[in-house]
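From: lab user (bench 3)
To: helpdesk
Subject: output format question, protein + magnesium ion

Hello, I'm new to running complex predictions and I'm not sure whether the block I got back is the full result or only part of it. Here's what I submitted:
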Amino acid sequence: MSDLHRQSVTQLAAGLRARRFSSVELVGACLARIEASQAALNAFVTVTGEPALAAAAQADRLLAAGDGGPLTGVPIAHKDLFCTQGVRTSCGSRMLDNFVSPYDATVVAKLKAAGAISLGKTNMDEFAMGSSNETSFYGPVRNPWNPALVPGGSSGGSAAAVAARLVPGATGTDTGGSIRQPAALCGITGMKATYGRVSRHGMVAFASSLDQAGALAPSAADCALLLREMAGFDERDSTSVDTPVPDYVAALEQPLAGLKIGLLREFFDKGLDPAYERCVREALKVYEGLGAKLTEVSLPSLPLSVPVYYVVAPAECSSNLARFDGVRFGHRCENPRDLNDLYRRSRGEGFGAEVKRRVMTGTYVLSAGYYDAYYLKAQRVRALINADFIRAFKEVDVLMGPTTPTPAFALGAKTADPITMYLNDIYTIGANLAGLPAASVPCGFVQDLPVGLQIVGPHFAEARVLTAAHALQRATDWHTRVPRAYA
Amino acid sequence: MALSREQIASIASLARLELTPGEFPVYQESLSRIVDFIGALDRADTTGVAPMAHPLPGLSQRLRPDAVTESDRHEAYQQNAPQVAAGLYLVPKVIE
Amino acid sequence: MSAWETVIGLEIHAQLATRSKIFSGSATAYGAPPNAQASLVDLGYPGVLPVLNAAAVRMAVKLGLAIDAQVTAHSVFARKNYFYPDLPKGYQISQYELPIVAKGAIDIVLEDGTVKRVGITRAHLEEDAGKSLHEVLPGVTGIDLNRAGTPLVEIVSEPEMRSAKEAVAYMKKVHTLVRYLGICDGNMQEGSFRCDANVSVRRSGSDKFGTRAEIKNLNSFRFVERAINYEVERQIELLESGGQVVQETRLYDPDKGETRSMRSKEEANDYRYFPDPDLLPVELDAAFIESVRATLPELPDQKAARFSREHGLSAYDAGVLTASRELADYYEAVVAAVPEEPKLAANWVMGELAAALNRDNLEVGSGKLPAARLAGLLQRIVDQTISGKIAKEVFEAMWAQGADADAIIESKGLRQITDRSAIERVIDEVMAKNPGQLAEYRAGKDKLFGFFVGQVMKATDGKANPAQLNELLKKKLGG
Ligand SMILES: [Mg+2]
Ligand SMILES: [Zn+2]
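Helpdesk reply: Thanks, we reran it on our side. This is the complete output you should expect:
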């Protein structure tokens, strides 16, 4: 049974149904691995061992009776910005260090209803603002492939937990690359859905017009299974789209021959690490071998996606985070002199440096005299970028390129300069601005560090993206590699 | 464009963020760099382009039936509150 | 002619009469225990999202159609960002550049009877804030968020009113209208209908606006009038003594009868509006708008015109009787019972009934005197069972006892005497008792006729039919 952690979500769900092992056994094994890894990785903020074991026992009873859903008894973990009833939901922030959600996020409730068991909440960049998981109030998460390096962010805890096989799958959110970038840096598969595909109800908002949930797991097949259960219309989210969710799992085996792949010219720029690029091009050759057609496409406005993002996301976050005022929940300063002091110190103390930086940036770009020059201008350029994508998808079925410019970097390497850090998301932000589904899949190694291939599809073409990712994973075994320390 | 200390102070005040003296130069420096960075948007020709506030253009707001679906749960909700009394959230005295 | 001209624009906030809040399923009922009606959405909890109430949209559209305004096919919710403890999210969801209702107009009748058209700039949907309670606990302010998220329509007028009286007439007209439409209960004490007044003065003949002050949260017609008058005086005095009006928000203190500067909300002028990314544009097609139009009731102006036409009422009377839908309905129910006497019905509704309601501080819809009951009384006047004078006595008894006219007439024996011989008998007695006056009358002192009428009425407790009495008395006195 000691190899349970090497099995994928799909395999574990099947194994549980076949009663080859029990959920209690599996959950116990995962909890032990979480505990053993915590000092080295710091992937979790909160572990809910007891309720998880109780849920596992219940799952075993269901399975024994031949009942249960598609994920019954399968352990997972939630990024700590999904609200979980009765469990602290911190968003990696001192502000919410004492916050216990009175309700479950829709994603949490749906996965629970599918039978999945949450083992706890994973560490993350504070309020999802970061690309290295160094902005968490609970300290940085470390990369399982090399503890001196970052796991990427902001869903870094989820990515590290899956990469180290502490849990077979985890939820994440992606506002500018926060699922795909850590998935690439940790050597796992990460999939962000189309904006509106997965409910944002219960996801603590960072930038409402960009935030979208998704799954992190070893394989595309696992992501397909998790995402199928997470996705769907939710009347509590006005931006949730009411269209049926196809069976992503059933679609996986569709043949790839004839698939038109667009290579994003703007992604193979001078900022891309040459060794990283070689891995990506190798993967593209595999696709050619499978019968796909490669063509180069250009999205001329795409290079402006990072500046657009660093107007739109801070603007929305400056407003979204105004509710954290020390009145109804969250951190309150000691002995406020007056109301203004209460606001200023509660927020000044509760938020970390990067959150404050973005709140201030957003306040600035929305303020009188700057709104047109920054916010409106950015939304106009966003429209140009969106139009570029729409044009491209008239010619190709999916777009491919690198997920990040480089593999994982050292802790502290980019914290001094926010712009250097922001440029990490240069290849991922476009999909958020246009609301497109996108995945990162492992496609090789550079100096023992994983490399990610990014696959972007048109709106609501999650199945196509996952099928393409799955095809690569049937032809290669990059996604099965596990860091030596966690093998 | 370099932001002045006064600008940082006024932004922080609008955003209700207390900054320590040590934080001022840090944010002055990084916000100035960010403002320069996003200034690149100037270069884009957006004549006649409508701003895009939402990633799925063409969708419109769904309307919810006018029905009461919530009940009184103030005790549970106030578990997270720093200071409450008599069902009220408390803040330092506000003078209007 | 005064040296100064007053310029007033009003922003009226009307609370929409929905069951649930504009963006959540919480109840909107007034008077619940603190925070009992504040759901996670109303509290601005992390992760929760707004979903728009269909009834609030229909009500706003109804208003737009009623004021002949443009109902916009595409409107957008925006966030108005500011910090205040009764504003849970740190922003109010409102509409800014693209409101649901664009330009319209409302007609008001001025004191001299002329009709003035006041332009409506816009009307938009927004959520209300909660309440800050400063007096409940010492040293702290308590926050009750039951009202947070209550749907409001904010109706913004053009700065076209020129006196406090005009402003009140306008506000009353809007009040009448929203209650006709059934979109607001109009309860001003509970804050369901309130306004902010933008007031400025300028030299007569000037075409430039003066600097304005905004008087916030006026919740009675009387306060609106007093606050504006005070503010106008204050501004004129200030300007005449060489000072300057500053643009600011002021509060009216009804106890002192004056306005004072609010401790300015810091940076109140930088709300950093931007489209709310949690909500999509509201798109209304023609079919939707027509479906709302089909629910429009007869509006006050239309009803008043019809009253004048059908019942021969003066424009003034028709205006009074249509000031509220309840009053108009009441009047129409009375008229239906005495169709031959619409003017009599109008006089009674505007006279005795209005006075009694006013005396007891009651609304016409209170049920104290149902229309059928008043109609029953008027029928007895029409069929001559009682005189108009006796009817007033009956009315008072009906009001006090809650009884029908007939019951009062019977129990008090107020039925008019229409039996000729009975009246003649009394006349004979009166003539016998007053031989001196009779002689004087017959000698030509005609005005003693009234004396004899009085004596007969006295003897019959006022029940003699006045017309018959007249006729018989003339005959008898003539010898
Ligand atoms: Mg206003
Ligand atoms: Zn308003």
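A quick orientation on your result: The longest helix of chain A spans residues 371-395. Let us know if anything else is unclear.
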